[in-house]
Write a structure and sequence with these properties.
Length: about 625
């Protein structure tokens, strides 16, 4: 898998020998910066009133940790869900790899299956990388999967080194460098995760460690990346703020003091102080190429920068570059419908109410020009038309606007504010507020009233059930008429095939075939309990005056009848008939089945649920356009 950002010795690098050498500052006791992080109080923001110049990275991109950090905040995804999400990430980031990489665990069977299935997709982006513990025995796992890069945990604050690992700084650094060397020995790119960097001694540990890593890079000819992990979300972007919390100074120090090229730096932030997004984009602006993030911002504790947010920010800074923003909505729908994630109503870009306005005066402005109160063309960019919330200030125009946007009504389907049903809904709304209501009208309440007063836009429950039944029946009929034995018009072979069809579908009351003159050529094929009822209604019977014969004969299309009560069984039925064609696509007969409606519907449990308006449109389309083989 090609990765544009993997560079070797051929690329021009900062000359580490000309940089000031920073020595590891060994301490007997940890430096916990208690003047900044007192624990018994909110952490302090300290200023040194010095600034560093803004110099954006030449290339900026997004890396994904949905399957690593993102899974630490929720029940694990299934392998199938990971594959589906991975494909959506690829579509979102586009062919130029704006979403450049995605990292995976390699430990459980599910993790391994997911990696293999994603690799099998052969997608150029995101490149699959791994995350392993800082243990030499884990390194071969990366090689086993043929991955070119792996992340390793290299905690850098004294909180971790002294209090968690129970080591001194030199011991920690030596251990980290040993793991890095074992990774380099296998020709794999190490990505060192500088955990808790915003509470670390930057020039006493981090920069000396980074310089040693760059020395190994020079010696091996293999890039070494550094992920700056703002583990507790302490990073700040205020000009003149001091290290270790200053994001801009951190990036500057690693580039100019440690000699790390910007394309090898990655920012990984958390949202504990509502700064995940701004910290990530600030890292971009000060020279860090990669911003690490998760879909919907889901990550440990308060989460990470949301990928969808960084995508919008990327476009604002650099343009589209192949990004498909409509996939953001597809991702949100997948998480809600397939995974069961409940996205907050007002969550930016993906929440169901992110572009909904409640104020009546705003609704009036939207009706005149939606640019007044919409951040951008959300219909075009996110497949999300702007909507309004209905209150006593909405008026007829606001209600009509809500209906047209909610149900995506366009052209001659648009509901006018003068529609009598709109006036009835408005009257009901005003009665609600006159009775003391103080909350807005919910979408569910509105939909009920729209169904009541504008029924012409909806499919009735009976129509919906009939549509589902017809769709399943047409699919079954189309399958049998394509069987080679049906095309022979050999009665004996056809009857055998039809008997199997009836046995497979017990709701079929009886099946039959007629020739091009409407004469029945087969016996009535029924279930054994109904066979006697059809004894005197068999071969040779003239059916040429029946609609189920005339319609397919004239149009070449599948025909579905209206409901009727069967004379034979007294059961509510409908007929499906379809032309039989030979290998030259010449019509040679008509195949028909009478289906017991109620029983058929009970058995059609695998039919999908659909929106009522969509159902009506599809129902009409199927009735008018369902040609043979294209129902």
């Amino acid at each position: 898998m090609e990765n544009n950002m993997v560079k070797t010795k051929q690329e021009k690098k900062p000359v580490t020998s000309k940089l000031k050498k920073f020595k590891l500052k060994e301490l007997e006791e940890p430096n916990l910066y208690k003047d900044i992080f007192p624990y018994s109080e909110v952490s302090a923001i300290v200023f040194d009133h010095k600034t560093v110049p803004m110099k954006p990275a030449k290339e900026i991109f997004i890396t994904d940790t949905t399957f690593r950090d993102g899974q630490q905040s929720r029940p694990p995804y299934t392998a199938e869900q990971i594959v589906a999400i991975f494909e959506l990430l690829s579509k979102l980031g586009g062919p130029n790899g704006v979403i450049r990489q995605s990292e995976f665990f390699l430990y459980s069977k599910k993790d391994k299956d997911a990696v293999l299935k994603c690799l099998e997709l052969g997608l150029p982006y995101p490149e699959i990388t791994s995350w392993i513990r800082a243990a030499k025995e884990d390194v071969p796992l990366v090689k086993q999967f043929g991955l070119k890069e792996t992340g390793i945990l290299t905690s850098v604050s004294d909180y971790h080194i002294f209090l968690k690992l129970n080591k001194k700084r030199s011991q920690a650094m030596d251990g980290y460098l040993g793991i890095v060397k074992s990774i380099l020995d296998l020709g794999i790119i190490p990505r060192c995760h500088f955990e808790d960097v915003t509470r670390a001694d930057i020039h006493g540990f981090c920069i000396p460690f980074a310089q040693e890593l760059m020395k190994l890079r020079d010696e091996s000819g293999i890039d070494i990346k550094i992920r700056l992990c703002d583990t507790m979300g302490y990073g700040i972007t205020y000009p003149g703020a001091a290290l270790p919390r200053s994001v801009d100074k951190l990036i500057y120090a690693f580039i100019h003091d440690a000699g790390v090229p910007g394309h090898l730096l990655e920012w990984h932030g958390h949202n504990d102080f509502h700064k995940a997004m701004i910290n990530a984009t600030t890292a971009w602006l000060y020279g860090c190429s990669a911003a690490n993030s998760t879909l919907l911002g889901m990550g440990e504790r308060t989460g990470n920068p949301p990928i969808e947010g960084l995508i919008i920010e990327y476009i604002a800074l650099r343009g589209r570059n192949g990004i498909d923003t409509t996939v953001i909505t597809d991702i949100a729908e997948y998480f809600e419908k397939e995974i069961g994630v409940k996205i907050p109503y007002n969550y930016p870009f993906v929440g169901s109410g992110f572009n909904v306005t409640s104020a009546g005066v705003h609704a009036d402005g939207l009706i005149k020009c939606e640019e007044i109160y919409n951040i951008f063309d959300t219909r075009k960019i996110l497949k999300r038309p702007i909507t309004t919330t209905i209150t006593d200030k909405s008026g007829n125009a606001g209600i009509a606007f809500w209906i047209n946007q909610r149900f995506n009504l366009e052209g001659n389907k648009v509901v006018d504010k003068r529609h009598p049903g709109i006036s009835k809904i408005h009257k009901w709304v005003m009665e609600q507020y006159e009775a003391g209501r103080i909350t807005s009208i919910s979408p569910e309440e509105m939909e009920k009233k729209v169904r009541l007063y504008l029924p012409e836009h909806f499919m009735s429950e009976l129509e919906k059930i009939k549509y589902i039944a017809e769709k399943a029946a047409v699919a079954a009929v189309n399958q049998i008429i394509e069987h080679p034995l049906m095309k022979t018009m050999d009665t004996e072979q056809q009857e055998t095939l039809m008997q199997g069809f009836v046995d497979e579908h017990p709701s079929v009351q009886f099946a039959y075939i007629v020739d091009m003159n409407g004469r029945k050529t087969t016996k009535n094929i029924t279930n054994i309990e109904d066979r006697a009822k059809y004894e005197n209604y068999g071969v040779g019977t003239d059916q040429s005056d029946r609609q189920w014969f005339i319609n397919p004969l004239r149009t070449g299309k599948v025909f579905v009848s209206d409901f009727f009560i069967s004379k034979m069984t007294g059961v509510l039925c409908f007929t499906v008939s379809a032309p039989i064609v030979n290998e030259q696509d010449e019509m040679i007969g008509i195949f028909g089945v009478d289906i017991q409606f109620e029983d058929w519907v009970k058995r059609a449990e695998d039919m999908e649920e659909m929106d009522h308006i969509t159902l009506r449109a599809e129902y009409k389309e199927m009735k008018s356009k369902a040609k043979h083989g294209h129902h």
